[in-house]
Amino acid sequence: MSPALRRGIGVAALVSTAATVWLGLWVTPPSTQQGNLVRLVYLHPAIAWDALYVAFGLSAVCSLLYLWRRTRSLFWDRLAAASVEVGVVFNALTLVTGSIWGRPTWGVWWTWDARLTSTALLLVLFLGYLALRRVPAEPEVRARRCAVAALVAFVDVPIVHFSVNWWQTLHQNATVLNADLSPRIHGSMAWTLLLSFVALTLAFVWMVTVRYRIEVMRDQVGEEELEVSLAERWAEAELTGAPPVPAPGPSPEAEVSPAVPAGERAGSGR
Amino acid sequence: MWRDALLVAGKDLRIELRSRVALWQVLPFAVLALVLFAFALGPSPVAMRRAAPGLFWLAVLFSTVLATQRSFAVEAGEGTRDGLRLSGLDPAGIFLGKAAAVFVQLAALELVLWAGVTLLFGVRIHATWLAVIACLLATVGLSSAGVVYGALSAGLRVRETLLPLLVLPILAPVLLAGSRAWSAAIDGAVSSGVGWLRILAPFAVAYLAVGVALYGPLQEAG
Questions:
Q1: Pair (A136, A257) in one structural domain
Q2: Mean per-residue pLDDT over chain A, rounded
Q3: Distance to chain B for A224, nearest Cα, Å
Q4: Same domain for A263 and A163?
Q5: Domain count of chain A?
Q6: pLDDT number for residue A72
Q7: pLDDT tens-digit profile of A51-104?
Q8: Which residue among A148, A162, A164 places its CB closest to the CB of B217?
Q9: Chain B residue with minimal CA distance to A121?
Q10: Structural domain span for residue A206
């Protein structure tokens, strides 16, 4: 993605978020039932939508594309990782904003309601994915391992959903995406709600692209550090006058393994 | 595939029969867990009887982690994993074999735990067939999901701490549905119990399918 496009998305996210804040806090009226609390509706559902559907759906699709031989490329792996990482943040925010909303309306910070429970479980599932990602391994090995983990976790999502749903339900039903697709709220509130979805999804996309870029740069730094340290070792060997054995190849490969033998060679030449 | 599965299951079970790690470590751990749960709850028989199904399944869940860890620890030796990979056995067969071996061990463990909750917690089950079916379905799910994650974390230096974090959230629906089904079986509330079997069955099928489909890439990633 070109830097200009990424910057454009960032600016759009910033502007739309600012507009949502303005509309949500000053323009829209308080609700008759919930008072000013209702303003959380411009935050919580949009965050939840990004975390539970966009982020984890995207990571599942990317993992599938990575595992499929014909589309296998580290691009999908990095995108999956970026999307899970941002998704985990949004998921945690979903729980936090939900909790802030739940305290005054339900009287408790936490309740063992179906959606809360499955959201919390989802958070733990994908924290596991991130933990697995931190285990050092070669990029391809790690990518395959993480792709499988993401898919296996994704299979669990509907099962968790149904089991917890049968277990208990207290949360209100979906307001915007109900069956007949006619939102049950009106006027400025509906528009602000819609804008909040756009704003937070833009913010999500922007964060994922930045996170993806960091992932790419991290790999590059790894490779370059390797080449620099290789060059240093060769220079060291030349300084002491002993030509390293065997003769230096034209281009040191960007593999992890040659780093150690190279160092040893330099050491033995001293 | 089936022949390979039988071979691998036979190998794993033979190792277990000879080493007796499952018998002398996992099984006592499960029973110990039951006793510790009882300590945590206090001596009231009513409270224990109400909590019994959940405690039974918690003990099974923790034992699943141990059993799958063990199932891959026996292959941690010098080059064993590579040997298994090079053996030309069908990955799906290896998966089914390992899952079957874990299944047999967990089923035996559940029998002992069943006796445990009957004796220690004074639980009497009215609809025995319901409890048995719940156990069978849940154990298929537990062993196949467990083996998938066992393979995923096999060979990693952090596997002991990583595996529980990965696998326990996945198994949460089994804990939920299993203990609800057992509660129903204790009360004789057959219809609600059968409802919970409808969670356990898709879970078992889903993870069997995932294992069969993904064990190949999983092995390569190890």
A1: no
A2: 80
A3: 25
A4: no
A5: 2
A6: 87
A7: 888 898 999 999 999 988 888 888 999 999 999 999 999 999 999 998 888 888
A8: A148
A9: B169
A10: 3-223
Structural domain boundaries of chain B?
2-221
Using a CB-CB cut-off of 8 Å, the residues of chain B touching A67 are 214, 217
Same domain, A130 and A263: no
Regions in chain B scoring below 70 on pLDDT: 221-222
| Nearest CA-CA distance, residue A131 and chain B, Å | 7
**A65 with A163, same domain?**
yes
What does the DSSP assignment read for chain B?
A: -HHHHHHHHHHHHHHHHHH-HIIIIIHHHHHHHHHHHHHHH-S-HHHHHHHHHHHHHHHHHHHHHHHHHHHHHTT-STTHHHHHHHTT--HHHHHHHHHHHHHHHHHHHHHHHHHHHHHHS----S-HHHHHHHHHHHHHHHHHHHHHHHHHHTT-TTHHHHHHHHHHHHHHHHHHHHHHHHHHHHHT-HHHHHHHHHHHHHHHHHHHHHHHHHHHHHHHH-
Shared-domain flag, residues A150 and A25: yes
If asked whether residues A17 and A91 sit together in one domain, one would say: yes
Residues of A in contact with B165 (CB under 8 A): 124, 127-128, 131
Residues found in chain B: 222
Last residue of a domain, one of A185, A203, A223: A223
Show residues of chain A in contact with B195, CB under 8 Å. 166
Interface ipTM above 0.90: no
Q: Are residues A76 and A190 in the same domain?
A: yes
